[in-house]
Amino acid sequence: MNNKGGSKIIAMYWFVILMIVAGGIFVMVSSFYNHPYDIREIEGEIMINNIANCLSYEGKLNSELFDEEGFSQEFSENFLENCHLNFEVEESLNEEVQYYFEIDFYKSENLEISTFNIFKGNLNLVAGYEIQEEKEYEREVKGVEDSFFSLDEKGEELYLIKILTIIKKTEKNVK
Amino acid sequence: MFKKRVKKGAILMENVVFIILNILFLSILILFLLKQGQGAALLEQSYAKQIALLIDSAEPGMTMILDMSKAKDLAEKNGLEFKDIVINTDNIITVRLSESGGYSYSYFKDVDVSLYPDNSNPEDIDSYVIKINEYK
Q1: Is the alpha carbon torsion for A108, A111, A115, A118 positive or negative?
Q2: Inter-chain CB proximity A30 and B36 less than 8 Å
Q3: Fewer CB in 10 Å around end: N or C, chain A?
Q4: Which of A22, A37, A90 sits opposite B90 (nearest CB)?
Q5: Which residue of chain A is at minimal alpha-carbon distance from B8?
Q6: In chain B, which residues have their Cβ closer than 8 Å to the Cβ of A34?
Q7: In this structure, how many other beta carbons lie within 10 angstroms of the beta carbon of residue B90?
Q8: pTM (2 decimals)?
């Protein structure tokens, strides 16, 4: 009689443990699947590739990037059209633009001071990127940086080109 | 002697019930896990983001084929036609796998894109063709 009572208690205890385990799994799985996939880093890398392909081909900078006076201001102003990028998608028309990028050109003899730079998109995202190290803001925006060397159009001067892309799209990528 | 047999039989029965309940419990748990990964909302998001990334990384002239068999099964179960599940309007990809749902994601590449079901095998159409035509 005592043994039977004991085994019943053990069985009950076993089911309580199972319930706790099931509850834990349920909470973990739900929280995992409720979080959206964060693809902003991949998007940023793809944007860098697009920009790099537009700026340089076979190791030489795009000839349209220069005019008689050096770097072309006109090319810079129409960079989005020239490089076939569209930041004004309908999704973001009511809100702010969700993208930002910055390109810095450095001459090989002076890698400290950039000789020319181009930036487009929402400038406000830069502040979000700079304070990303603080935990509170780390998910606000995602930034990706990359650089490459390229010769100028004549193949005479070597440039280091640094590209930074920042993407917000917080509500689509972070919960 | 007889009493002992009854007691042994009762213990065996209790154990069998206990094991069956355990198996039932684990089966429900596994079914729950499998079902969680195949929800319409999750698939819509996954396909919309995949298509947007593919377009962003493609160049004009490229044609890509994306396997969407899971999306097809779910869409048909929810009474939607496969040809209507992916919509591309003004740089926004929308994937819809249920009457009420739908997930949109934008791409930044300024290209003209054609999206349609892959009819190369008419008996089994479960892929989508993503054709990058030219810059806008």
Answers
A1: positive
A2: yes
A3: N
A4: A90
A5: A4
A6: none
A7: 11
A8: 0.83
